[in-house]
Design goal:
25% of the residues lie in helices and 23% in strands. The protein has five helices and 15 strands. The strands form three sheets. A six-stranded mixed beta sheet has the order 1-2-3-4-5-6, covered by helices on one side. Strands 7-8-9-10-12-13 form a six-stranded mixed beta sheet. Helix 3 packs across helix 4. The radius of gyration is 18 Å and the shape is globular. Bound molecules: zinc ion (ZN) (2 copies).
Length: 281
């Protein structure tokens, strides 16, 4: 009850990692705010409904004060087109100095210059490479930050359940990302959820609002290569497969079985973890 809706981690003076609190929404997604000299990029707007725009505005004002620069224009884009990554788009739409890029394939292609190859997007002395990564979702894209070597991998790869909707497409996308990573320095893979505990092979149940002893957010290029190897080994046959730090999951979170687990887990945790309000549905 006392925790803020967003936790903010300053990775460095030009990159902020935000995480939505489990008390705000069980998906607990991560958001990223990346600053170039001329523009700032907000990746995703989260899962809940609480205020985000004032917080982002405060971080942008703080950045411009610190750097003695005018406030940069804000681009709001999305790792993909799922509800837990775009729930607060309305808070940004139609406001001066802000462009909201809809989470669609045509919009991503146009704004980020994506073709069969990666597009390039310049924030001002900071170029991001942008790759299409369909498979979890048609409009999924991956950003590579040349400045930090970070791959922002969205829901495609993170320490948790990788829900694969279109298996063949996802396998092709993963191979393409491996190829990209062979020719670029990769410091971290930063995805948008943590569903894995720090104990190898152990995941938290879907719906968890409280996750003690979590896995770290960051994965390495080695995880990407391991994932790709397993997909090749499965020869196109969808299968649920637990790896040490993530689980391949040929399903969507909307299936009745998962939905019931999510509700049961949340109800139980809200009743037993501190003074949480009951589940509203
Ligand atoms: Zn998600
Ligand atoms: Zn998703």
């Amino acid at each position: 009850m006392e925790s803020p809706d967003f936790f903010i981690h300053e990775y460095n003076a030009n990159l902020f990692i935000l995480r939505e609190s489990g008390c705000s929404h069980y998906e607990k997604p991560f958001l990223f705010l990346v600053f170039g000299q001329d523009r700032a990029l907000l990746l995703d707007t989260g899962a809940g409904k609480s205020d985000l725009a004032p917080l982002i505005d405060r971080l942008i004002t703080q950045w411009s004060d610190r750097h003695q620069k005018p406030k940069p224009k804000l681009i709001v884009a999305h790792t993909h087109n799922h509800g837990d990554h775009k729930s607060r788009d309305k808070q940004f739409a139609g406001r001066p100095g802000i462009e909201v890029v809809p989470a669609t394939v045509p919009a991503n292609e146009k704004v980020f210059g994506i073709t069969a190859d990666a597009g390039q997007f310049d924030l001002g002395q900071r170029t991001l490479d942008v790759l299409a990564m369909p498979g979890h979702d048609d409009a999924a894209i991956i950003f590579y930050d040349r400045r930090t070597g970070i791959l922002f991998t969205g829901d495609n790869i993170y320490p948790g359940r990788l829900y694969i909707r279109d298996w063949a497409t996802y396998a092709r996308s993963t191979q393409r990302l491996v190829d990209f990573a062979q020719s670029h320095l990769v410091s971290h893979l930063l995805g948008n959820h943590i569903e894995q505990s720090a104990t190898p092979f152990l995941e938290f149940p879907i719906g968890s609002i409280y996750q003690p002893n979590e896995h770290t957010l960051e994965l390495s290029r080695a995880h990407l290569i391991e994932l790709n190897q397993e997909l090749i080994r499965l020869k196109g046959k969808p299968a649920r497969l637990a790896l040490r730090d993530l689980t391949i999951y040929p399903s969507t979170p909307g299936t009745p079985e998962l939905r019931q687990t999510q509700i049961d887990t949340q109800k139980k945790q809200r009743a037993t973890q501190y003074a949480q309000p009951p589940l509203e549905r």
